[in-house]
Amino acid sequence: MIIAIDGPAGSGKSTVAKLLAQKLGLAYVDTGATYRLVAWRALQNGTPLDSVDALRTVAAETLRNVELRDGANLTFDGSVIGPEIRTPEVSEATSIVSAHPEVRSVVVPEQRRLVPAAGAVVEGRDIGTVVWPDADLKVYLDASAEVRMSRRTDQHGSSDGIAREVTERDERDARRPVGAMRPADDAMLIDTSSVPAEDVVARIVKLLHPAPPGRLYAVLRAILAFLLRTLFRLEVEGVENIPKHGSAILAPNHRSLIDHFVVAALTKRQVWFMGKAELFKSRMGARLLTALGAFPVKRGRPDRASLQRCLELLRDGQLVGIYPEGTRRPDSRFEEVEEGFAYIAVRSGAPIVPIGLSGTQAVFPTGKKLPRIVKIRVVVGKPFRLIAQTSGVLPRTKLKEATAHAQERLSVVMNAVEPL
Ligand code: DC
Q: Nearest C-alpha to atom 18 of ligand 1 is from which residue?
């Protein structure tokens, strides 16, 4: 089990990562300390911070002698590394040293070596994107600039130079060409500004172990999956793009009433679905849909209750299916993403998984009573994310841009799978 925790200075990474490791009985690896150690040694030796070849040598010679002790402490030459690498001066130098791609190419393999085979919580800037892209769960912590600065001030016992250190360092860390600080496309975003570390840890544990599907869901899903595979010769490409842990918005094109079942067949995890309220009119229909994780949404006007439900499910590590086109369009190609879809993605900060369905539009031909047995093909695309803004007023222009971005990314997958 590898859990990647990334984020800027003062986002609460270290506190959360240490607590989480303790709680899960996993090792804790602080990758920032490896860069700090290299910078500290460079400062001690008088190695210029722009002398790439010399820094590479310092990095290789230093990190060769770093080990993980008791699953939590990094040692250098046999002694636990102390507070000497945490001064503002070393922080500044570390950010400069770690911006050299040549230095990173020496440091990253050493960081991987420090991670025990039994698993770890690994903390840094590029763990989810570079060091451990296959991590079981990726978390990206952030907090408002004021909160991050006051946390650093508390750590150092003085605010001298902290504002400059933090902003300049974050900017440099985010802009460097290799290993830039950014959330991985499939990372869970958590804003820690007003959440105590223990609660952040509890949220991450919930992301790892979300409530499992009910028995009825599991049985119905298994039957549907069997029917789809045998009768409809369901063919799926890219199923590994559906995350095994954490929340995501599954975004299929919508051509038929059976699309929901096809998506549910793709994963044993429960897929919660927003379905238009009209589908819940008959008692039988409502029962079946509810058992299958659907919840009603009133269309044509903002439906706060269902929106709230959606955001809560995503917060709790669940998979939520939402049709980006809003409604069924049996006869057209993937065309327009609704703003409501982008709104949920922006407000939750959850990754979006595109799901291109093809064939389902022919299952219920208009005017015929019985379904037609046709081949169904599914392509699951790689997760991507929109800008995230989980609180505060969301400007209209930002929402429009996010909608256009979703449109562009989803179309690539949908148009590749849909027949012309
Ligand atoms: O997490 P930290 O503040 O101890 O990290 C110090 C610096 O090290 C940070 O400003 C950038 C760099 N760093 C990095 O480039 N990649 C990492 N995975 C971890 C840290």
A: 124
